[in-house]
Design goal:
CATH class of the largest domain in chain B: Mainly Alpha
Strand content of chain B: under 5%
Largest sheet of chain A: 5 strands, parallel
CATH architecture of the largest domain in chain A: 3-Layer(bba) Sandwich
CATH topology of the largest domain in chain A: FAD/NAD(P)-binding domain
CATH architecture of the largest domain in chain B: Orthogonal Bundle
Shape of chain B: elongated
CATH superfamily of the largest domain in chain B: Cytochrome c-like domain
Number of domains of chain A: 3
Number of helices of chain A: 13
Structural class of chain B: mainly alpha
Strand order of the largest sheet of chain B: 1-2
Structural class of chain A: alpha/beta
CATH superfamily of the largest domain in chain A: FAD/NAD(P)-binding domain
Shape of chain A: globular
Order of helices and strands of chain B: EHHHHHEHHHH
Distance between the termini of chain B: 44 Å
Number of strands of chain A: 26
Distance between the termini of chain A: 47 Å
Oligomer: heterodimer
Radius of gyration of chain A: 24 Å
Largest sheet of chain B: 2 strands, antiparallel
């Protein structure tokens, strides 16, 4: 039986410095009731930390000897962290734990691809503003920092045994597991489409080869042809992504195929940066883009890849290139690990992205259901830093700081016409909440838009250096 | 909370508890707000699935909407004019309008005496917030909670440029500003004199310097945190 651990002593405000806190911790709590206690006891400034000092903990704990033993005594050389997925979330968390723990934590990153192609900036590649090779990043520097990078598929998680099964048959055990698999598509969300049709109607929503294919199809579309995008329902990766993609396709077509048309079929009433995109399309690509929203059947779509037809509310449209972005859910391994709920996403606690299903597991980035943050590489990177700090603290006693989350999404509308949207987020009681936001304004001057675009390049170089550099 | 609870292995002093912090303050209690809505609003306004205009316009997606902007509803001229002047429904405007409609829009056709009780108003607005755009899908959507002004006493944080805290905080910076000091499109911030760094951050925080991302980031940095960052980036420059 687990002893009933209740915090006996709460740090009076201002009594101790943060640097001393970690070494004072000797206890943990294990259930909801205790967490509630802690919340109730929290100081008015919202940042006081719970303290169980050694004496009070010993007074209630029957597992006293266990409580005082270090991980070494558990017969394990180092605490072990396994990270599934080497994207913006997983790559960042692996790197930061390894870097900041100076070898005190054993970090393993499981990622099937030897080279990771970012989804962000893949639209700029479609538009001819970015080289394909510049989207790709390998894991050499992450490995050099001491992360054991295994190029394999995680095919199962045994959360009772705390092991991860790899396709090769290997089993890896962990003290903390981070699951950051990104997205998969919801089967049947666009009738007529499944991944076996992705060479005829690419999704191009996981970058890499699919982005190359879509670019090829756009550049070879017949003169005056129609590019159709079937946009996804909420929530999906990269809220302004479809709008930016339309902008980039329009940019290419206006140069090489100016009589071509773009048709967006969208199940959503509205979408991120809508006013900015619509203003930009009118200015740069007048008459080229048509959007069919839910009022006109945009939510009732079927595709016939062999015939290159899109059926919108019963009306057949012949198209020449069709980019189908299906409804999305957490990457398959999150579901296999039993971390997802009926929504298809993996619910987490707002304070530290810890799975609501298992306290030794964290879910990061697109796969998580955390509340107000958009599914983006920036969000995943931001969440990963919080998780890295928490895991390192739990395993090595280093200082744990309150979570800070943020996100900015830049989008390119036309040459030198960049816009952005961003927000700050904080942990609320039940989910991550948005506490402030900003967005580029319509009618901004060209100089500001150019600077925003140049800044987006700086951001890209910054974030990939932060993860892979 | 945890659907799968297991006894946690106690690894002693090395297992520090997570900080459980509800930093963001809710707009209000949406469940209580539902009752306020029924009592105060529902006789004229519909909200939720299939809501339509009745005596007043429906209130779905009211947040961030320009005042008087449903094409298919006949508003007072006064409200349409306010919309043209740039009145958008955000938290502050909704509070003001519901508290006393005529104070915000003289000549509005909404004949409602107003709801003086601030808490009930906050609950009502929290309830309505759920029927507007969610930031997960529309990042620019109105906030879902109120940022808490966090005041750390000098003793709470090891102040005077706490480099270790600065390193944690710096992770937010290094998403864009490269740790190597390299810069293109985004300035380098490594190795600055501490004072320059502190002054620059405060200038963004006070919105003297323009730049939305930096203004946004610095809004929630307090003096100690700015000092910690300045100390960290100074140290980084020495490496």
């Amino acid at each position: 039986m687990q002893p009933d651990i209740v915090p006996k002593k709460i740090a009076p405000k201002g009594m101790v410095s943060l640097s001393r806190l970690a070494s004072d911790y000797t206890g943990v709590w294990t259930n909801r009731k205790e967490r509630r206690e802690i919340r109730l006891n929290r100081g008015a400034n919202g940042r006081d930390f719970m303290i169980l000092n050694r004496r009070s903990f010993l007074g209630t704990a029957t597992a006293a000897s266990a409580a005082l033993s270090a991980p070494m005594a558990l017969g394990q050389a180092k605490p072990r962290v396994v990270v599934i997925g080497g994207g913006s979330g997983g790559g960042t968390v692996a790197r930061y734990i390894a870097k900041d723990s100076n070898g005190a934590v054993d970090v393993t990153l499981i990622e099937p691809s030897r080279k990771y192609y970012t989804c962000y900036f893949s639209n700029l590649y479609l538009g001819g503003f970015w080289e394909f090779d510049a989207l790709g990043h390998d894991y050499g520097n992450i490995a050099r920092l001491g992360v054991n990078v295994i190029h394999d598929w995680a095919v199962g998680v045994d959360r009772d045994a705390q092991t991860v099964a790899l396709a090769s048959g290997e089993q890896l055990s962990y003290d903390r597991l981070v699951v950051a698999p990104g997205i998969d598509f919801v089967e049947g969300s666009v009738p007529g489409w499944d991944v076996s049709q992705q060479s005829l109607m690419p999704h191009a929503y996981k970058s890499g080869t699919q982005a190359q294919l879509l670019k090829h199809q756009i550049e070879n579309m017949r003169e005056g042809g129609t590019f159709c995008m079937v946009a996804p329902p909420n929530p999906y990766r990269c809220p302004p992504g479809p709008g930016e993609r339309v902008s980039m396709v329009a940019h290419v077509l206006s140069e090489i195929n100016p009589t071509a048309k773009i048709l967006i079929v969208d199940p959503k009433e509205n979408y991120s940066k809508q006013a900015l995109f619509e203003e930009g399309w009118e200015r740069h690509y007048p008459g080229m883009v048509t959007r069919i929203g839910p009022d006109f059947g945009g939510e009732n779509v079927e595709v016939r890849p062999d015939a290159m037809e899109v059926i919108i509310d019963g009306v057949v449209e012949a198209v020449d290139v069709c980019n189908v972005i299906p409804a999305q859910k957490a990457g398959k391994i999150a579901e296999l690990a039993g971390l997802t709920n009926d929504s298809g996403w993996a619910p987490v606690l707002p304070a530290d992205m810890r799975s609501r299903m298992d306290e030794n597991v964290f879910v990061l980035g697109d796969a998580s259901a955390q509340g107000a943050m958009p599914k983006s590489g920036y969000s995943a990177n931001s969440q990963a830093k919080v998780v890295a700090n928490v895991i390192r603290g739990e395993l090595t006693g280093s200082r744990i700081f309150p979570a800070r989350y943020s996100n900015t999404c830049w989008s390119l509308i036309a040459t030198n016409d960049g816009v952005k949207v961003g927000a700050n987020y904080e942990a609320g009681e039940d989910q991550i909440e948005s506490v402030s936001s900003f967005i580029s304004q319509t009618g901004e001057d060209a100089e500001l838009r150019q600077q925003t675009y140049e800044e987006s390049i700086g951001w890209y170089n910054g974030i990939v250096a932060d993860i892979f550099g | 909370m945890f659907e799968k609870l297991k006894p946690l292995i106690l690894v002693g002093a090395l297992l520090a508890p997570t900080t459980v912090l509800g930093q963001a303050t809710p707009i209000g209690d949406a469940a209580a707000g539902a009752q306020v809505y029924q009592r105060e609003c529902a006789s004229c306004h519909q909200i939720g699935d299939g809501a339509e205009h009745r005596i007043g316009p429906h209130l779905n997606r009211i947040f961030d909407r320009r005042a008087g902007s449903h094409d298919d509803f006949r508003y007072s001229e006064a409200l349409v004019r306010q919309g043209r002047d740039g009145l958008f429904w955000d938290l502050a405007r909704l509070h003001a309008y519901i508290e006393n409609p005529r104070a915000l829009v003289s000549g509005t056709r909404m004949s409602y005496r107003g709801l003086r009780d601030e808490e009930r108003r906050a609950n009502l607005i929290a309830y309505m917030r759920a029927y507007s755009d969610q930031p997960q899908n529309i990042p620019e959507a109105s906030p879902t909670a109120i940022a808490r002004e966090v005041e750390l006493s000098a003793e709470t944080l090891a102040i005077e440029g706490d480099v270790e805290y600065g390193e944690f905080l710096s992770a937010e910076c290094t998403t864009c500003h490269q740790r190597s000091g390299e810069h293109s499109g985004i300035p380098g911030i490594v190795g600055w004199p501490e004072e320059d760094f502190v002054v620059a951050m405060h200038a963004y925080k006070q919105k003297l310097r323009p730049h939305e991302v930096m203004q946004s980031v610095t809004q929630r940095l307090d003096d100690e945190e700015i000092a910690a960052l300045a100390a960290f980036f100074r140290e980084l420059g020495r490496e």
